[in-house]
Amino acid sequence: MSQPIELDLSKDPIYDHCFSQDRRSVAITRANDVDIYDLTDVSGRPRLLVTLKHHDKPITALDISVDGKIVTCSQDRNALVWVPQPDGSTPKPTLVLLRINRAATCVKWSPNGKKFAVGSSARVISVCYFEGENDWWISKHIKRPLKSTILSLDWHPNNVLLACGSTDSHVRVFSAYIKGIDSKPATTVWGERLPFQTLCLDYNLGSWVHDIKFDPTAEFIGAVTHDASLNLIYPGPGEQEVAQVIKVKTSFLPFRSLIFATSSRIVVAGHDCYSIVFEGDAQHGWKNTYSIDDPKKKTRSDIENQSALNMFRQLDLKGSSDSTSASLLTVHQNTINVLRPFQQSTAGITKFSTCGNDGKVVVFDV
Amino acid sequence: MEDWRRVDVDQYDPEKQFIADDLELPNYSAQDLEPKIQQIRQYIGSNDLVNALKSCVQDPPYGSTDIVKKGYLLTVLDVLNTAKQSEVKELLSQLSIDEVDVLVKFIYVLMTTEEGQKSGGALLGWFDKAITVVGEGPIVRYMSDPYRM
């Protein structure tokens, strides 16, 4: 297992990050702006390429589509689509009419990059698509039966189904079919006829849902909740039927994010500042198998050289030469906010990236 | 305005405010619970504390009135007070993670009652050992749990 690649990018918390498709640059949220860093600089250090300035409240999420468009959403209730310019200058922003009266909390491009969905505290999901005639992005609202803030969204590979997790502790799967943009989707386990806003699944997990993902085969969904649990929800053959729910309670602090490495392996991370892996399937259940960057396997001397520099640093910070430092043994020094896939092989995801409240983006091996 | 952070902005929302799901919990009366409490007292009498704890955490009266809940909690407090602090760890290790979750919930609620505060030391001992045995999971689950005592 190779060493994690650690990028110390910001003094502020990074709420979301996304690598470009070619993995040569990374976009991070930094308060009201987005910073894009070039990672191929000769110095070996990330070099700030461009800062995207337009929002006037903190940016809560961002995403990059397959064709390189960046979408950002912010507490100022707006979303912007940034289209890269052919000459390489600063991407041009286009305002999206979300029609919401509370902060936007999460945003995700559909896999083909033609639509995106924005979740918000206004208890709606805005599904946005480009209207060529007027040359702008417009939105359609999914309202019912959402009762509270949407915290996470994930698209089905068919570009039509949309899963959402919310603070009313429900996970739901909706159809976000837009006439004229989408072709009729094939029948899946989630349903046959799918006009816009069709509710395909609704289940109460009993606690805030922080993140939700379809598994790579899109046959079931995984969700992490604030009761420090991983939940797997398997749909049944009937309409809105839930065949099986597996709840894996753990002794960790709550998880903020999850990704599927394969259909039988999930990586989660959150307030414990390091990643934890679950493996299993519907028949045998799921269990925690190992941790990545596990602090229990490290000792102080691994990361700290008992040098004079360290002694003076402690004197400076704490006014004592006590050499036991307050830093954590993990790479991340604060909550991990988002996990994203970084590198994939035919067998599944082999590397993933994390960003956290400590202003770091780190790439780990699964 | 002085304390603007505490203003409930949702009251001006024309649409309804957040209403939690109906959990459809049975509303047990004190009579319904009487046999169970008797059973627990028998376990205490025969010093079979593992079974006493297991019956306490099984199907707690979440949907009942506060008075019924209070009576039930005092029985739980008796069980917790009967155990010696030296045997707490051993007792906890015989419970499943779900059972410890419920037990920690009871301890939290008992801490808010007058009777619980009188034996605060014992409760803290139980709490401390529970966290040592199963980790911090029960704390976050208590805080995010819709099933309340």
Automatic annotation (TrEMBL), chain A:
It comes from Eeniella nana. Functions as component of the Arp2/3 complex which is involved in regulation of actin polymerization and together with an activating nucleation-promoting factor (NPF) mediates the formation of branched actin networks. Its main location: cytoplasm. Pfam families: WD40. SMART domains: WD40. It is found in: Cytoplasm, Cytoskeleton, Actin patch. Keywords: Actin-binding, Cytoplasm, Cytoskeleton, Repeat, WD repeat. It comes from the Eukaryota. The lineage of its organism: Eukaryota, Fungi, Dikarya, Ascomycota, Saccharomycotina. One of its GO terms (biological process) is Arp2/3 complex-mediated actin nucleation. InterPro entries: ARPC1 (IPR017383), WD40/YVTN_repeat-like_dom_sf (IPR015943), WD40_repeat_dom_sf (IPR036322), WD40_rpt (IPR001680). GO terms for molecular function: actin filament binding. The keyword Plastid does not apply. This is Actin-related protein 2/3 complex subunit. One of its GO terms (cellular component) is Arp2/3 protein complex. Belongs to the WD repeat ARPC1 family.
From TrEMBL, chain B:
GO terms for cellular component: Arp2/3 protein complex. It is found in: Cytoplasm, Cytoskeleton. It holds the Pfam family P16-Arc. Keywords: Cytoplasm, Cytoskeleton. Functions as component of the Arp2/3 complex which is involved in regulation of actin polymerization and together with an activating nucleation-promoting factor (NPF) mediates the formation of branched actin networks. Arp2/3 complex plays a critical role in the control of cell morphogenesis via the modulation of cell polarity development. Functions as a component of the Arp2/3 complex which is involved in regulation of actin polymerization and together with an activating nucleation-promoting factor (NPF) mediates the formation of branched actin networks. GO terms for biological process: actin cortical patch organization; Arp2/3 complex-mediated actin nucleation; regulation of actin filament polymerization. This is Actin-related protein 2/3 complex subunit 5. Belongs to the ARPC5 family. It comes from the Eukaryota.
